[in-house]
Specification:
Structural class: mainly alpha
Distance between the termini: 78 Å
Largest sheet: 2 strands, antiparallel
Order of helices and strands: HEEHHHHH
Shape: elongated
Strand content: 5-15%
Strand order of the largest sheet: 1-2
Radius of gyration: 40 Å
Helix content: over 70%
């Protein structure tokens, strides 16, 4: 069983303390710690805690509603923002200063591959092609389906 106290449990506990004090100790004076406290001041103190807890609940519910409204606004506005950024990039190209005025980062220039990287890329492409058994258009054109007479001859000769 969990020993964790929820907000609802804490609120109920404080409200029960108030109700018990009002019922059984309506006009008592108690010594709590080193201080003397009257029932009325204790009830007032506990009630301030109840009010604060309820105010937090209201604020959290309001914040939750506000966050949901923000999320739904993002869903409707984000596609427009992306489209506008594409428009700005298309209109101004890679003019760095203009793009920065819109808060956009200019595209980085591609750095050319070294000859070793190009050779490695070509080797990898050939190995992949061989592994997959893919052929180019010229190799495919050389492959012909056998004629019907050849097919029937090969099937009868095997039988």
């Amino acid at each position: 069983m969990s020993s964790r106290v929820t907000k609802a449990t804490a609120l109920a506990r404080v409200q029960a303390l108030i109700a018990g004090t009002q019922k059984h100790l309506p006009s008592a004076t108690m010594t709590l710690g080193n201080a003397s406290v009257s029932s009325a001041s204790l009830i007032k103190l506990l009630q301030s805690l109840v009010d604060a807890m309820k105010a937090v609940d209201v604020a959290q519910a309001s914040a939750k509603d506000t966050l949901q409204a923000l999320a739904s606004t993002h869903l409707t506005v984000d596609p427009t923002i992306r489209a506008f950024e594409q428009f700005v990039r298309a209109a101004f190209g890679s003019v760095a200063q203009t793009l920065e005025d819109f808060g956009l980062v200019p595209p980085k220039a591609r750095r050319p591959l070294t000859s070793e990287q190009k050779a490695a890329r070509a080797q990898k492409a050939l190995a992949t092609r061989k592994l997959r058994g893919t052929k180019g258009s010229r190799q495919k054109a050389l492959i012909k389906a056998p004629s019907e007479t050849t097919v029937s001859q090969t099937t009868t000769s095997k039988a």
